[in-house]
Amino acid sequence: MSRAGPSPGVQLLLGVLTANLAMALAWVGYRMVETRESGGNVQDAQWLPPGDFASSMLPLAAGMGRERKRVTVQRVSPVLLSDHERTLGMFQLPGYTLGERGGRALTEELERVLNAVDHRVRTVLTEEWVPPVTRLPASQKEAVLSVVLSRDGRVARRFFVRPSGSDALDSSIVAAASRVGQVLPLPQAYGGAEYELNVTFRLE
User: Three-state SS for 137?
Assistant: First the structure.
């Protein structure tokens, strides 16, 4: 009496397990050969799929030694009320106080609005600025850039008031400033045609 063989399902399962075992053994053999060829240093092998972790593939030096960046803003243009606002400040109108006190209150309000413009300039330039990785001498860690805004908030001009003396640092500042085309419109109460700020870029 003949003995029945394994069912087709069992045969399929055995085949899959055998194939997986063969693949695992082949992989172990390949890794042993690769390790011998690389002098036993397994870390030399490329484990990450290309393109998925581009930032992780940068040289170690690119992520180390970067100094802390600091951006500060100093107003150059005076806080001037427009002729229209100065005229309104002379009269007793809703929201305005008569005389010199009224003009002072309007100027303080204008300064508060301009502070928001200053803050925005500082924020966008801090975000855009990518300092060089190279360590710089203390005498080349700071540069001052003038940024001139037109009334609609566009950057009309930018130029160095005081370059750092480092091509790498100055180039990184120019690159950051060139990516900022528009900030915030100037308030209608502002009396100047343009608004100038000195922006200090410093590595610490």
Answer: coil
Q: Using the predicted structure, report yes or no on whether residue 190 has a pLDDT greater than 80.
A: yes
The lowest-confidence range among 12-26, 27-41, 111-125 is 27-41
Cβ pair 189, 113 in contact under 8 A = yes
User: Where in the sequence is the domain holding 131, given as residue range(s)?
Assistant: 66-80+115-203
Domains contained in the chain, number:
1
Q: How far apart are CA 173 and CA 167, in angstroms?
A: 10
Q: Flag the least confident range among 23-37, 105-119, 128-142, 161-175.
A: 23-37
Query: Cα(first)–Cα(last) distance of the chain, in Å?
Result: 90
Measured CA to CA in angstroms, residue 108 lies from 74, 80, 81, 105, 159 at distances of: 17, 10, 10, 5, 29
Give the DSSP letter of residue 4.
Answer: P
For residue 109, tell me if it sits in a domain.
no
pLDDT band per the 50, 70, 90 thresholds, residue 88: low
> What is the C-alpha to C-alpha distance for residues 37 and 24, in angstroms, rounded to an integer?
20
